[in-house]
Amino acid sequence: MTDQHPDLIREQALDRAQRRDERKSLVSMPAQDLASAPQRAGFLPQSMGEAMQFANLMADCNFVPIFLRGRPGDCMAIVIQAVRWGMDPFSVANKAYFAKDGQPPAWESQLINAVINTSGALIGRLKMDFEGEGERLRCTVRGRLRADPDEERVNTQSIARITVRNSPLWKADPEQQLGYYVTRAWARRWCPEVLLGVYTQDELAEIVDDEKREARSSAPPRPTREAIAAETAPAAEDEQVDIREMPDTPVEWAAWKSSLERQIEGAASIDKVNALVRGEMPVINASPYTDEIMKQVSDRIADLYGDA
Fold first, then answer.
1. Cα 121 to Cα 9: distance, rounded to the nearest angstrom
2. Rounded-to-10 torsion of CA 184, 190, 194, 197
3. CA 260, 264, 267, 271: dihedral to nearest 10 degrees?
4. Would you tell me how many other CB atoms lie within 10 Å of the CB of residue 46?
5. H or E element at residue 281
6. Residue 90 in contact with residue 63, Cβ under 8 Å?
7. CB contact set of 174 (below 8 Å; sequence gap of 6+)
8. Structural domains in the chain plus CATH codes
């Protein structure tokens, strides 16, 4: 058996002694102080260099979700968030996911509630009370802030007012989901620094819904057929128009109609549609397809208004 280097033996002995001391402190520590236990804090990276090494190790293992494997940059974000919360980075990683590409990461409600209760911003834990059933179910959350211990802060919410319910647990366990929801609302109102930049999937869906409603409210109104007709009206008699060679046979009219329809559908803006129609208006008025062409023009302009 090879003799070990004296320095290595000494380091191993110090490590064993430190672990014994940590175990003793955990056994003698009151339950409410476990969040600040030396074993928990000592597990986290203590510098940016350690965090980067840790993120590389996370990205190279199977104990993180698939979307984090081989992505040390994303793992680094998880590590930074875990350090901020004082939590195990692997546990945090397994409670994170991306609901859609391009959106911020979403976090499971269970994790967010754990973050709130262990944040150090509260005195004790938040308390939840429920009353009613079905759409009459209501949750009230109460708690006291460490910075302002004399005043109890209260938030209450009825399930009927919650429109986004993506999780199937809203049906299977509505009290749990409503409790999560109101707890988050309590924290965002009374200690927003705890959940800064952190959202659940339901909250991200609410943000998207709000953006869509705002976009619809600011969009121009859909044009009426009268307005479209005015836009595409033929030029006045005193206005010069190009004299075009008219199709003569049914085959020529059908070919002209097919070509014009493709141009209308390909027009990328309302102005281009109007310019096309004005240029073709003498032929459109003389054609056997006037009503069909004008209906297509109306539909195309309406579509372009909707896309604006």
1. 43
2. 70
3. 100
4. 10
5. helix 270-286
6. yes
7. 137, 159
8. 32-94 (no CATH), 109-218 (3.30.160), 225-307 (no CATH)
Residue 206's contacts (CB-CB under 8 Å, 6 or more residues apart) are 163, 164
What is the distance between the alpha carbons of residues 119 and 122, in angstroms, rounded to a whole number?
A: 7
Rg (CA), the chain: 33
Residue type at position 86: G
**CB count in 10 Å sphere of residue 65:** 15
3-state class of 138 per DSSP? strand
* CA angle centred on 120, ends 183 and 152, rounded to 5°: 55
200-234: burial string, b at 16+ Cβ within 10 Å, e else: bbbbbbbeeeeeeeeeeeeeeeebeeeebeebbee
pLDDT tens digits along 48-82: 888 899 999 999 999 998 989 999 999 999 998 88
Any idea of the CA torsion for 33, 80, 46, 112, to the nearest 10 degrees?
Answer: 10
Confidence tier at 156 by pLDDT (50, 70, 90): very high
Which residue intervals of 118-269 are DSSP H helices?
169-172, 174-190, 201-218, 225-231, 250-266
Whole-angstrom distance, CA of residue 146 vs CA of residue 128? 18
Determine if the pTM surpasses 0.90: no
Spatial CA neighbour of 153 closest among 195, 121, 200: 121
d(CA 125, CA 53): 35
